[in-house]
Write a structure and sequence with these properties.
The chain is built from 4 helices and 15 strands. It is α+β, with helices and mostly antiparallel strands. The strands form 4 sheets. The chain has a 6-stranded mixed beta sheet. A 5-stranded mixed beta sheet has the order 1-2-4-7-3.
Length: 293
């Protein structure tokens, strides 16, 4: 009987140890599964929290630059409350308000807006998207939306352009009505824009109302970029204003600054040259010209 008892003990003890071993193997596995589940649930919760936080309060935003042909997205629905003001869409411009010069309007732009066409800088022609101009001016963001107040103003003979807050506006010539944003420093901003029209380095003088002998003052931003210029001293009207000014020795590409041009009649031919790091091109007969003062 003793050998039989010892044999049973010998066979049962390894099975017992094996069971403990398997149990020990399963426990970490289950812990790992529980830990993995906790991480997944935690990540989902953080993701939801991040999404909720990104849609609340000021800040954030940004979007691609607006251009006249990027308005293919469908109309955005006005929000029930995107701020204090009349709900509007991102496509809406100041012309749709049917107001008179001097009137003010407060509109509420919906969150999650898409950029639409804007011309001008600080002073905008009335057919520009109000909400996108608000982003350009730094008053709201595309992501958050918000309320802005505009004042209708008389039209101008020229509207500048600039790149701000992810929105690049376009230059334009004469338009019958304008608008500006009502802020504590509105008048100072408008006076500066009226004194010198902001332009980009690829902006030509083609948008001006041409009148021989008339002068225009522009402001070029710092950090110049090369763009096409034709002529030497006398430049074709479709030449880059800022690059022509550098070529003429009136401006430095790095710092930018103010430039005054005078409109001149066309020439029978234009000769290119290299000056101050700018290479201009030859051209034949062209109807209108300008010189840098």
């Amino acid at each position: 009987m003793t050998p039989s008892y010892q044999s049973t003990q010998a066979t049962q003890e390894p099975k017992y140890q094996e069971s403990l071993f398997r149990l020990e193997r399963r426990i970490p596995g289950r812990c790992a599964l529980l830990l993995l589940a906790a991480i997944v649930l935690g990540s989902a919760g953080c993701s939801k929290l991040r999404n909720e936080n990104s849609n609340a309060g000021p800040g954030g935003g940004g979007h691609t630059s607006a251009s006249p042909d990027n308005s293919n997205t469908g109309p955005s629905s006005p929000p029930s409350s995107a701020g204090k003001g009349t709900p509007t869409t991102w496509e809406a411009n100041a012309t749709s308000l049917n107001g008179k010069d001097g009137q003010t309007f407060t509109v509420a732009c919906s969150p999650g807006g898409a950029a639409h066409s804007v011309w001008g800088s600080d002073i905008y022609p009335a057919d520009s998207s109000i909400c996108t101009a608000g982003v350009h001016s730094g008053l709201i963001t595309c992501q958050q939306g918000g309320a802005v107040t505009i004042e209708l103003r008389p039209g101008r003979t020229i509207y500048g352009c600039s790149e701000r807050n992810g929105v690049t506006t376009s230059p334009y010539g004469s338009y019958q009505h304008s608008f500006v944003f009502k802020t504590p420093n509105t008048e100072a901003v408008v006076r500066e824009a009226e004194d010198q029209t902001p332009v980009l380095w690829n902006t030509s003088a083609s948008m001006v109302s041409f009148e021989t002998g008339k002068t225009y003052k522009f402001k070029c931003p710092s950090g110049g970029k090369e763009s096409s210029v034709w002529g030497t001293d006398i430049y074709t009207l479709d030449s880059s204003i800022c690059n022509a000014a550098v070529h003429a020795g009136k401006l430095a590409s790095e710092s930018g600054g103010s430039v005054t041009i005078e409109l001149r009649p066309g020439e029978s031919s234009y000769k290119g040259s290299t000056r101050n790091g700018i290479k201009t091109n030859d051209y034949g007969k062209y109807g209108q010209s300008f010189v840098v003062k």
